[in-house]
Design brief:
Elements lengths: L10 H15 L6 H13 L3 H13 L1 H8 L11 H26 L3 H32 L8
Helix pairs in contact: 1-2, 2-3, 2-5, 3-5, 4-5, 5-6
């Protein structure tokens, strides 16, 4: 069983909970580091179960956040918005799973840590693969801005 599952709320945790809810109520572009503050602080405060619940909430909200953060019509349109959303969905999931793995390691939950690390690696590889694909697409479809005559 995981250690430290106190329900105590410190002023810092209360502030971080309020910030997370504020970001949800006022959608905008917030770096993943801002979203991760609450579950990381919960873990450090010994509230491991609550931290994992918050990590899962972040995973559930990835698509919602990206749909808000990525403009409907991106300039240039290459790659298409759907590919852009998928690519950065993988990056967001990688970041969350990576922190979940570290939280489990701190609790000596080796099996869960490895499972989350594997998921993080899979999403990071998908992100990298999509980065290579988009680079290849751009490099084969770019038109020079100036021509040498």
């Amino acid at each position: 069983m995981a250690k430290g599952n106190s329900q105590a709320t410190t002023p810092k945790l209360a502030r971080l909970r309020a910030e997370a809810e504020w970001m949800r109520e006022h959608p905008g572009i917030y770096p993943m580091e801002h979203w991760l503050r609450l579950p990381l602080a919960l873990g450090k405060a010994g509230q491991f179960n609550e931290a994992i619940i918050e990590f899962h909430r972040l995973l559930d909200e990835v698509d919602w956040r990206l749909n808000i953060e990525v403009p409907r019509q991106r300039p240039g349109g290459d790659p298409p918005r759907s590919a852009f959303l998928e690519k950065f969905g993988h990056l967001s999931r990688f970041q969350i799973y990576e922190q979940m793995s570290l939280a489990c390691k701190r609790q000596n939950l080796v099996i869960q840590a490895k499972q989350y690390a594997l998921l993080a690696d899979q999403h990071y590889q998908e992100y990298l693969d999509m980065s290579v694909e988009s680079y290849h697409f751009r490099s084969t479809h770019e038109h020079p801005a100036t021509t040498d005559i």
